[in-house]
């Protein structure tokens, strides 16, 4: 992706005060806070923007037409970086990570190097016989699946993620359950990720998890470990939708009013380093989508010997309000 | 006055406490306690509130509880059904008074 384009996408509706500060920086200032990196424990890898879905909330605007894919050379550079630094957790995202042709090598290379290897899956990509080998690989390496399941309602799910998504997702969840994923004591963790279907925020994650567990179990016999309720980040296709629907200002105001200074300490950007499909380092995947480099300069993962230094300033913009809203973001 | 109802007034609800702070505080404390999860979930309470909002035809309440219902995980079909419940009760309340009409009419008629 062209970095200039990314910044331009954000700039059309960015709001700044007289000092040129974005909404998030203004909120930090009001609370006398600043955002700096802590000890890095998680490596996040975006293996590309190719996806079988074109979700309306996607902050990287992933889709079937996207050509941006992490190549084998970069995959090896990422594995080498993980070998040099040993992260507690590794978080593989996309696009649909399963569609990267080097995903098997990446998982096999990273699995011995971390105790928690996670893959973010949209579920529908795992529907089909060609994915059986990949599912077997996930089981072999005890890969933790973070599965997108936004809503218990078919219409809401399909309007966000495309026709047929809801039913296909249920089928894949049943299959994963039959293989042990989400089952007590199986050692195969299956977590669901829910996100709002529009310009609003979800409320209590605990109450949502309780309801999802009850309804998925009763109606479809599906089990899972935990549910994460994540807010949509106003970037990419989601920001375009907010702008087109005339709800961007309302959404940003909602995020601003939900700003929680207590959530800052637990923000993932403090302890995570994110590698883009090109191998460039960022403080998080959202900064990657917006083109805000880690430490303010373009560094390739192969050039980075160690971890980012604690105390380094984290690049921020208005969308950072999403992670600081309510209970924070994981 | 340009218009009676202004959407921008909704987030200013707490300003009503400026002239009667103690009363407002008691009201808002009661309000937040009522709407918190108890025997009913917050989602169920928001659906009830949405129904009532339509019964009393309060645009502020309709706006607020439409958002609340979505935030708490309800969908449009559930929210529409909830409004039909209040519509049925309102309609039934009119219809049951037809018995009063019948009583009066029967008493006056030969």
Note down, in words, how this protein is organized.
By secondary structure, chain A is α/β, with parallel strands linked by helices. Helices cover 34% and strands 11% of the residues of chain A. Chain A has an eight-stranded mixed beta sheet. In chain A, helix 3 runs parallel beside helix 4. In chain A, 45% of the residues are buried. Chain B has one domain: AhpD-like (Up-down Bundle).
- At the third CATH level, what is the topology name of chain B? AhpD-like
Cα-atom radius of gyration of chain B: 19 Å
- CATH homology-level superfamily of chain B: AhpD-like
Biggest interface goes to:
A-B, 17 and 14 residues
Structural class of chain A: alpha/beta
Largest sheet, strands/sense/barrel of chain A: 8 strands, mixed
User: Can you name the CATH architecture of chain B?
Assistant: Up-down Bundle
User: Approximately what portion of the residues of chain B adopt beta-strand conformation?
Assistant: under 5%
Mean pLDDT of chain B: 94
CATH topology of chain A: TIM Barrel
Provide the CATH top-level class of chain B: Mainly Alpha
Measured between the Cα atoms of the first and last residue of chain A, the distance is 25 Å
Helix percentage range of chain B: 55-70%
Number of helices of chain B: 5
Measured between the Cα atoms of the first and last residue of chain B, the distance is 55 Å
């Amino acid at each position: 992706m062209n970095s200039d384009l990314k910044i331009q996408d954000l700039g059309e509706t960015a709001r700044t005060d007289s000092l040129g500060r974005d909404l998030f920086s203004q909120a930090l200032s009001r609370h006398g806070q600043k955002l700096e990196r802590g000890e890095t424990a998680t490596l996040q890898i975006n293996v590309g923007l190719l996806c079988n879905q074109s979700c309306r909330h996607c902050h990287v605007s992933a889709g079937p037409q996207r050509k941006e894919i992490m190549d084998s050379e970069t995959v090896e550079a990422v594995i080498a970086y993980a070998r040099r630094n040993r992260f507690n957790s590794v978080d593989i995202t996309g696009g649909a990570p399963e569609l990267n042709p080097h995903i098997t090598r990446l998982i096999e290379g990273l699995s011995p190097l971390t105790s928690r290897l996670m893959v973010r899956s949209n579920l529908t990509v795992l529907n089909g016989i060609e994915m059986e080998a990949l599912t077997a690989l996930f089981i072999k390496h005890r890969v933790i699946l973070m599965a997108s399941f936004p809503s218990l309602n078919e219409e809401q799910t399909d309007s966000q993620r495309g026709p047929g998504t809801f039913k296909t997702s249920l089928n894949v969840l049943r299959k994963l359950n039959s293989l042990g994923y989400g089952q007590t004591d199986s050692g195969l963790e299956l977590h669901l990720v829910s996100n709002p279907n529009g310009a609003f925020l979800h409320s209590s994650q605990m109450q949502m998890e309780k309801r999802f567990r009850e309804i998925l179990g009763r109606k479809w016999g599906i089990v899972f470990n935990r549910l994460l309720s994540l807010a949509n980040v106003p970037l990419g296709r989601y920001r375009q939708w907010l702008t087109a629907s005339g709800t961007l200002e309302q959404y940003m105001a909602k995020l601003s009013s939900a700003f929680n200074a207590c959530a800052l300490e637990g923000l993932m950007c403090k302890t995570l380093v994110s590698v883009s499909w090109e191998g460039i380092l960022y403080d998080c995947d959202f900064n990657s989508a917006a083109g805000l480099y880690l430490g303010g300069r373009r560094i390739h993962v192969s050039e980075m010997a160690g971890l980012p230094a604690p105390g380094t300033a984290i690049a921020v913009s208005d969308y950072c309000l999403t992670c600081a809203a309510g209970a924070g973001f994981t | 006055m340009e218009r009676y109802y202004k959407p921008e007034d909704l987030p200013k609800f707490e300003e009503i406490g400026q002239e009667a702070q103690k009363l407002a505080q008691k009201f808002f404390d009661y309000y937040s306690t009522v709407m918190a999860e108890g025997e009913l979930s917050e989602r169920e309470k928001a659906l009830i509130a949405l129904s009532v909002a339509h019964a009393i035809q309060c645009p502020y309440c309709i706006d607020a509880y439409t958002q609340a219902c979505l935030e708490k995980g309800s969908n449009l079909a559930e929210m529409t059904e909830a409004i039909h419940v209040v519509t049925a009760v309102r309609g039934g309340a009119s219809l049951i008074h037809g018995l009063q009409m019948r009583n009066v009419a029967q008493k006056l008629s030969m």
